[in-house]
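Batch manifest, entry 17 of 40.
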Amino acid sequence: MGEKTKPGLFAREATGLVREVGFMLGVIIILCHVVGLGWQKRAFEFSGPRPMPADQLPLGLPAMFWAFLVAGLVVLVTGYAAGYVTAAMPRSGGGYVTISRVIHPFVGYNAGWLMFLAEAFSYGLIAVAVFEAIMIFFSIALAPTVVSFDATTLFVGGLVITIIFTVLALFGVRLYGWLMHTMFWIPLVITVVFFAMWIAGIMDPTLIEKGVEDVMGAPPSTFVTQAINSGMTDPANVATFSNAFSYALGGAFWAYMGWYATTFVAGEVKEANKKLPMVVLVAGLIIMLVYLGASSFSSIGAMGVAKTPDGKWSFFQSYAWLSYADLTPAQEAARDAAIPNFQDAWTTGIASMTARGMDMGWLSIIIAVAAVLWVANDIPPFLLVASRTFFAMSFDRMMPEKFAEVSERWHAPTWSLIVTAIFGIVGCIAESHLTIGDADLHEYTAFAGVVGTDIYDAAFLTLFVLSCMLLPLERKEIYDRAAVKHSVGTVVVIGAAATLGAAYCLGTFIKESTFFIFTPVGIEDLCSSFGFWGCIAVGVLLYIYYMYRNTTKGVDMRTLYVSIPPE
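Output type: structure tokens
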């Protein structure tokens, strides 16, 4: 008998992926991943529970504006650090590759596993959120008609969207790129209308007043009265700027999450070794400017409506309070009685209502379409990030090698795309509030919702940028070959600053998420907590299993994890 052939390091000698992502598409992937649903309500959502009188707002701008500014600076530094270290070893999987090669395979593997789960769960979550966005924005645009879907419809709709986008991804990143271009440019053009309406509302507050009454059946002055009656101006509820800012900072980081998405498809980016850092930096700067503009213009317009005699309170604080403060059932009943068609506050909702105030209902519908498309165009990047992470782990033989297979015709990782869609079903369940009997499955699957997935994401990011700081110290041979040149000191300083920023982001998420992760109450919280910690435990067990399996098969895992995967 002949000798048994020793297996190679990787699943095969080449990935089979093709570099078809140019600079513009790389930027669009990040913009689509980040700019979705949250930014459209953050100015109101994080102002309501921490109301501040107008005379205490720096430059007359809400705390959310300043939170977007500070968090945006963190985004720029961490984004460049992630882009730089990925450009030094530009392979699909992004941070999974850099963390496992620079810090330690165990750390990289488990970070990659959690990032896969975060993006895969979110893939299904966002699919359901598309239908939630339809309910939100078309209920404003078509008021007094209310658009509503039950939990089953939300789940089925999300499932169908998940399947459709997965099938389209099987035809390769070139087709997917065309799809993302289409889904990006249409809402971007209409976003100009958002700003036009916000500016129109600033110049003529009566447009907002008329639109609000037309949509919700009550004038803005009623909102102010209801907010004051429900305790908005009580000294115990009025926030200082530092308190409001620290609260808003969590919301800002949440709105920015995913600002380094293109690093995960580095193996398909043209000249990634040279251009990737700038792709991430440019995308982060654009997002920052959009967020600052949206949070300021929409707020200023609302602040000019229904002011109290002392000028301290207005429709802005009142609408935010009535939408997102922790009102009692009696206070909610009083609100709904006074405001017949009450809709929660959204920045795009202000634009839509301003259009209604101009007797341009058709424009309000167009605004609603763009608002929904900003959510829908999140979907392709989430699938790309998750599938490429799982592909990279499989290519390293640390997942079933079947998932490293790539279509010879379309150059897409077929099975990694399919497994991402399967995990996405959990996100569909978590977001849709699907019920079995009287049990709301959302309460049992909170680990797959926004809170759990963002903690996984922020933990991954912290390790990702830490690998940037350590690159010239631990893997100097890779640092020396990098096409983007910086001194050792510069890379270490950028990486250290990015690590501190990412760690602060992670700490902020954890601080706001203790309710089920660390202090579960009831069977629902216990199930969610078990799911959160169980996902981490599964990653550890998978690492141990595949390291043992590969070692017994003769794969030199130490050499594998000091090597950069082939193209």
